[in-house]
From TrEMBL, chains A, B, C:
<dbReference type="InterPro" id="IPR013529">
    <property type="entry name" value="Glyco_hydro_42_N"/>
</dbReference>
<protein>
    <recommendedName>
        <fullName>Beta-galactosidase</fullName>
        <ecNumber>3.2.1.23</ecNumber>
    </recommendedName>
</protein>
<feature type="binding site">
    <location>
        <position position="316"/>
    </location>
    <ligand>
        <name>substrate</name>
    </ligand>
</feature>
<dbReference type="Pfam" id="PF08532">
    <property type="entry name" value="Glyco_hydro_42M"/>
</dbReference>
<feature type="domain" description="Beta-galactosidase trimerisation">
    <location>
        <begin position="396"/>
        <end position="597"/>
    </location>
</feature>
<dbReference type="InterPro" id="IPR029062">
    <property type="entry name" value="Class_I_gatase-like"/>
</dbReference>
<feature type="binding site">
    <location>
        <position position="163"/>
    </location>
    <ligand>
        <name>Zn(2+)</name>
    </ligand>
</feature>
<dbReference type="GO" id="GO:0006012">
    <property type="term" value="P:galactose metabolic process"/>
</dbReference>
<feature type="binding site">
    <location>
        <position position="118"/>
    </location>
    <ligand>
        <name>Zn(2+)</name>
    </ligand>
</feature>
<dbReference type="GO" id="GO:0009341">
    <property type="term" value="C:beta-galactosidase complex"/>
</dbReference>
<comment type="similarity">
    <text>Belongs to the glycosyl hydrolase 42 family.</text>
</comment>
<dbReference type="Pfam" id="PF02449">
    <property type="entry name" value="Glyco_hydro_42"/>
</dbReference>
<dbReference type="GO" id="GO:0046872">
    <property type="term" value="F:metal ion binding"/>
</dbReference>
<feature type="binding site">
    <location>
        <position position="161"/>
    </location>
    <ligand>
        <name>Zn(2+)</name>
    </ligand>
</feature>
<dbReference type="GO" id="GO:0004565">
    <property type="term" value="F:beta-galactosidase activity"/>
</dbReference>
<dbReference type="InterPro" id="IPR017853">
    <property type="entry name" value="GH"/>
</dbReference>
<keyword id="KW-0862">Zinc</keyword>
Length: 664, 664, 664
């Protein structure tokens, strides 16, 4: 398996966002020296450089960029060069106020922070295109150029704009999607509440309204908004491709916040990049991070780039905890274990002013005599030894299906319960898989599932019949499935699958659901097994399924809660509630056993994460999330990649310690 | 007593909102068959039909309505035909954006949900009038036409509009109310904070402002807004009346949310209708429902129509619990017991799409093979036997006075306590009456009180002197009164009655209040009796009143908390705090005894509600809200109306069971 | 020491806001009689009189003001005459809608309450100037005129306006402050996030934006907004000064809410005035009040005026508790003890209507036969005996440094912790000083500190190097300092002091801080001493400082938490966390001892506040905040000022009792 990063940089991509324009040039030589001593191999340059290169419209001054790129080249450091379009200079809104985005209630979002542009506006696009053209032309052949970094964190702050320009673009998008107004009326069920459109020209964004908006309109607006940003990306990519047909192009995705649909974006990126900011104050933060890494890797089924993480604390939470001693290293290896071929930070030198002056950096306000610099530089040295790992990936026997549209749809109103949040539901299932120590891909329902032994579907609320049929066929052909409640309910236009819940999955699951019985916040329902459920219960009528567990109190006492159905050559387990962690572990554990899925490594203590990368060798990552040392059994003939030592039958991991073992 | 419903339908009105335009016509014949088998006698048609009959402005297509009406007639089902004005088609706002309502902060409320019209706007009114005219003309003589249903749930989502059109209408309303600007200045106390108007043209709605708005302006705006919607109603009613002088006209009121003043609207309806959505998750939900039913019945002192309820769950709460087995039947009988001559659902067939697709219906997504269909159809069959009950009403010896303007005024700011919510206060008093098993009318202070033995006034904050005098005269003439704190404080323009609190009630109550001493949230004050008060305490100086209970701790320890005053030929009890439930029950119980009020039925177990309808016979409703069976004593010679059995000295009620007994 | 109040009124200023225009003139003679019998010597007149004197633009009618002023003069009552500009009449916004202020999201704030003017607008200013000119001219020589009261509670509701007029004024203010756009770009660190301005014309207020705004922009907008209001004040003052060169001018400050910067305003007032509204429901309300009084007194180092307080309850909190029997008197003496030469109320006669009708007054709705009138009149009589105290002040050996800009800056976003609120931090430190019974001045960091024995710096986040150097020099010269965490971090433009935290204080404190470790809400960290810290911890590296206490758990276990450093001839104590109250008392107590600061009076029971005023005699105020009596030791030869009795070696203070003792 080849490695894009190794091919371009000759080793691990290690570095940070580098914003030298914030500092006098006298600092730059220090920067180079410190970068070298920290093992930096690549930096992201110019992400917020627009105003510094185009101080007034159309008048470009690339002098400082030239000098930075030249210095990088001279020091053998690659540049992930930004297209600088993420934050327009103040003059753009001053001259073209219509470029500013609007909230659903009409509020104009002014300059003064970042991302203050309506993605559908032609003026922004023209100015951005002209800038990208200039950059692409100028640096196409620069020796420092390693990669293109388009824009930055698309949709992070303005995932949707509700202005009139966006409204017009939305109508055009709808015309493309539906053809004519009759098809739109049908898809959106507009007969309800007298919403039938006589003409597409009447359609508006889902702006502030008297009460619940049309759910199909809301969902399509999220799709449109993601696509509007994607158009911006593709416009830039096309310019870059023309100038540099072989330089890879990426943009950095942000979190699982359902801003843009990364599953629809990923095919357009040469390499997937991700900004990861786990909260040290969150107890399960490393499991949540693992979930996202398994999603990012699965987008291409290839290594990905951790394009941003914090050396220590961030600045944007209400209470920003630093990473404790050892956590930054441990968590970096976690990303590498799960497929990252780059470890990059935001940012190189901590800003003196501006909104992120309290975000940690490789070189803090206190300079290199600080813990942050020491720990990052030490990691840089270590990563230099991981070159052989580059390009390898993770072979997962389990897929967790998480559908972007369903997650968006569940953000809507007027559902049986407001307590269904896709991220939380996904995580409640993923945690059991993580604790079971098995490798997981987080995938869309439309991928080829046949390679997985077990497929877990936490909540596939919105699903078209053809996609649902793939899941049915997967089980019929011998697959093992675990599916939770409120799946198969509506199609992609939020129209209910008629004939009884859960629509296209009734036969597969061997049951019907007469009615949903959501639990209020904090409400629980006892289970026969001794466990308890939260969030949800429902009136299940088995039609072939065996009952694994029953509700033990409340209005549904004695009725089925968890079932299993042999279907075709496979088996489908169904959960009609969100079981407590132990019950979930039990249900998932039995499904893993039935599917023949085993942990990456047996006999591992609690709190130790084990991941294997392979494809070009076998690399076992042992990550001790405990604060105290533990002993972990090892396969024969393992070699410690960082020390070169041959390892025995077991190895001691220090508190927050890491071992990367090469297996034979 | 005649019955409007029996006269028109020949029996109980039982049915649902029927929105066939959401379905292919192929479904309609199934609908008819299912309706017949469910005992449906009336359906509400076309409530959101505007866009489906007037797809483009002025071009009406009533074909589908004709076919629906004809089918209904052919099947002997009455139509409560809607005027279709509740939700304008998108083309209205597209062509006339000024028809959209605005919030107090200026936010425009866009189409995409429903009720997106400013009620004061001439454009909306013209289009609505033209539509109503067309409907009235076309269906005046249709054999299915049973009743007119004007608009829908007036003010549910947009009780007030703050646009410039509304501002102008407000000024006109003020000119009618006050005559000139001097009278307005006087009523609104505008000398305060330099708010004196030089001209009515300067007056604005109570829009977003730097701090607390003029309370009289705020209160008058609520009155104006209710009247603006009433004008819309009356405009439609006038058109319908001209076309069909004898067809009754109604509109469905929604909840106790103080949106429109139902007490001022009621005289304009031929029959009062109400949409009832008790929350199964609320412990006291049946008592809250009873309160509203007693209010609806008392509006006309006649039977009313339960025009909407859910067969099971709703969709618009954060967590929507279904009605448990038996609850829908039990709660329906509760409405009938308290005067309903119709039991209707929202809606007939559960929508496939749109914002209410998860609202339960008589025919759910799963079709007729569902609990919801089975339970509603069974109820339909039963109600067919209740024909003789129709037209009877409830003879209540107790009145609970709840004033709409006072409730609105308490929603204002800068009061002694933000914790005074009219609904909660009313309910705290009503609950004791409900648990005492006595019949209650919930009335305005302006009704004739002389027919009641006991009058309970939970919180009559805003009261003009002439209205206050009626209460004084009621007691002087021998009436019994229970009044709670913060009554008699201001007049209808929010001007304090000077000379000491509680203004016009000091002599009646035999006391003065030197100062209010509201308790913070969660704060309590002990009482000598061993009970405790919440929400409020105050410095009471008796002037003739006897002290029933005293504050036992805090700054007011030793001072009077609850008093009783013999006044004229009657007695007035006063509560200077909100006592706990047991103390409230004791105070109310003593007042009931003194007034000679007895329960409808003695010896009834807890959780069993007993109501008698009479006038044309005597009908005793026994409603067991417990989940387990209980035994209830019965008067002699009672006959079970549903079974025809002669009942003995006692009857067993199943858990959530109902008996309707005809008394001799 | 002379006394402005005694010189003008011949005795204590005692009275209230007097708004006779709200009442028929028939009430006015009653008012005069009641004022005389209550000992009133001064009233604030006409604060909301604009609409009543200028009913239509330009047409003044001062008749009623004349009659009020004449009556006051005839009764020997002074007038603190308002300029009436606090609340423009409705006609101003009606004719000039651009005078209305806007929120950051663009919402227009309409008339209907008060303070609905953009302070930067020329139209408001012109109308205000014309009115003030008319008032100044008319009453310059009126015998009742004692003082000028400009506007009212500047910035209370609209501290910042974001309209386009304000935007232009902001740009002009920036041009004055920075000269050119390059200096602005440098100060605001605009290279970050591509915010560099090409021209000052591009700068906007910090309006609603996609994410965190530029912190320097936000902070400067607060400064500008305070200055915009100050310009209004100065414009009025200049008119008044011309008409009456010797009549003192004041305006009433409101609370510690960081609306306007009172430290920059104070030099422009002839006498500092303050509106004090402690919440009787707050446990530490008297300590919070003391803090503000010590700030107000320290602004001029002279007596100040309590221009508003409530006789009992206010109306604007969610739950408005009255002052219990004795509290109003006790709290009034607290203000006098801490330097007030006036005790005034809002208001004289409780309004019948308007938003403050439930705010207590000297003459309540119930008239003079009420507790409020009785207690205030009794106080009026007592204060008549305090004439000799007037003009004296408090000699404080301790300074608490509270910087307005730092407090503003901490209201920003994207800080290490959102839990740092200047008021709370200041209070946590002040409380220990209050409980230690020592006298404190609350001062800006720029005052001369050399006169203080101990300087306490709770959180001086934003400090320029020259100001920081004053603190360093203070200690070097022998001063004692207590400083808490997150001080010395940024300069006045929110730019971090580079080279390691806490920037300019590292040498002084003998330590460095590697990283901040804020605690989440409710989070605590144990200390070696047995105490605990909240809010914050940090990684401290001593460089000369001794460690007084260490963190005992968490990631920083074993590292320093509290240190002490001998520096020059002084000592600097540093707290790296917010210790619990006992630990804070211990740290502060040790610093007081080291600095040689002793309590005003030794041997005082808990809950008894002792303050000495001096300069023209010695006056000892003993304030018993307990509900029960206590005995307090006294110096020899003390005389009870209120009774004339010679006091012995100790005196008994009744519950909530007060003794004012003249010392020899």
């Amino acid at each position: 398996m080849s490695s894009l990063v190794r091919d371009r940089l000759g080793g691990f991509a290690f570095g940070a966002d580098y914003n030298p324009e914030q500092w006098p040039e006298s600092v730059w030589d220090d920067d180079m020296a410190l970068m070298k001593s920290a093992g930096v191999t690549m930096v992201s340059v110019g992400i917020f450089g627009w105003a510094a290169v185009e101080a007034t419209p159309g008048s470009y001054d690339f002098g400082w960029v030239d000098r930075v790129m030249d210095r990088l080249a001279a020091n053998g450091i690659g540049a992930c060069l930004a297209t600088m379009t993420a934050s327009p200079p103040p003059w753009l809104a001053h001259r073209h106020p219509e470029t500013l985005p609007r909230r659903a209630d009409g509020t104009v979002l002014s300059p003064g922070s970042r991302q203050h542009f309506c993605p559908s506006g032609p003026v922004y696009r023209e100015h951005a295109a002209r800038l990208v053209e200039a950059i692409a032309t100028r640096y196409a052949d620069h020796p420092a150029l390693a990669m293109w970094h388009i824009n930055n964190e698309y949709g992070c702050h303005v995932p949707e704009c509700f202005c009139d320009v966006s409204a017009a673009a939305f109508r055009s998008w709808l015309a493309d999607r539906y053809g004519d107004v009759d098809a739109l009326n049908d898809a959106w069920s507009t007969t309800f509440w007298s919403q039938r459109y006589a003409d597409l020209a009447e359609v508006l964004p889902p702006r502030a309204a008297p009460t619940f908006l049309n759910p199909a309109q809301v969902l399509d607006y999220k799709r449109f908004s993601s696509d509007a940003l994607l158009e911006c990306f593709l416009m830039e990519k096309e310019i870059l491709r023309r100038a540099t047909p072989t330089v890879p192009v990426t943009t950095n995705f942000v979190g699982a916040w359902h801003r843009i649909d990364v599953t629809s974006w990923a095919p357009h990126l040469d390499v997937v990049s991700y900004d990861s900011y786990p909260d040290p104050n969150e107890p399960d933060t490393v499991i949540q991070a693992a979930f996202m890494y398994d999603r990012m890797r699965a987008l291409h089924g290839k290594p990905w780039l951790l394009l941003e993480q914090a050396p220590s604390a961030v600045n944007w939470r209400a209470h920003n905890a630093p990473k404790a001693v050892g956590e930054m290293r441990l968590w970096s290896y976690q990303a590498v274990a799960r497929g990252a071929d780059a470890i990059m930070y935001f940012q190189w030198r901590q800003s003196r002013g501006g909104a992120e002056r309290f975000h940690s950096a490789m070189v803090p306000h206190g300079g290199p005599e600080t813990r942050a610099y020491a720990e990052t530089a030490a990691l840089g040295a270590e990563l230099g030894r991981l070159g052989p790992v580059l390009g390898s990936t993770v072979d997962a026997p389990v897929a967790l299906v998480s559908d972007w549209s369903s997650g968006w749809a569940l953000q809507g109103n007027a559902l049986p319960s407001a307590g269904l949040v896709q991220e939380e539901t996904d995580f409640a299932h993923y945690r059991s898989l993580w604790k079971a120590g098995v490798a997981v891909d987080v995938v869309s329902p439309s991928v080829d599932l046949s390679r997985y032994r077990l497929v877990v579907v936490p909540n596939l609320y919105a699903v078209d019949l053809d996609v649902a049929e793939r899941l049915v066929e997967y089980v019929r052909a011998g697959g093992h499935l675990v599916m939770s409640f409120f799946s198969g309910i509506v199609d992609s236009a939020e129209r209910v699958h008629l004939g009884g819940y859960p629509g296209p999955f009734r036969e597969l699951l061997g049951l019907g659901v007469d009615e949903f019985w959501p639990l209020p916040p904090g409400g629980t329902v006892a289970l026969d097994s001794g466990g308890a459920g939260t969030h949800w219960s429902e009136w299940i009528t088995p039609a072939g399924a065996d009952v694994l567990d029953r509700f033990a109190d409340g209005e549904l006492a004695g009725m089925p809660a968890i079932t299993r159905h042999a279907f075709g050559d496979g088996v489908a387990t169904y959960l009609g509630t969100r079981p407590d962690e132990a019950t979930m572990a039990d249900v998932v554990g039995r499904a893993l056993t039935a599917a023949g899925v085993t942990p990456v490594l047996e006999g591992v203590p609690d709190g130790v994460e084990v991941v294997e990368r392979g494809g070009n060798g076998r690399w076992l990552f042992l990550l001790n999330h405990n604060k105290t040392a533990v002993t972990v059994p090892l396969p024969a003939d393992a070699v410690d990649v960082l020390t070169g030592d041959v390892l025995g039958a077991e190895v001691e991991l220090a508190g927050r310690g890491v071992v990367v073992a090469r297996l034979s």
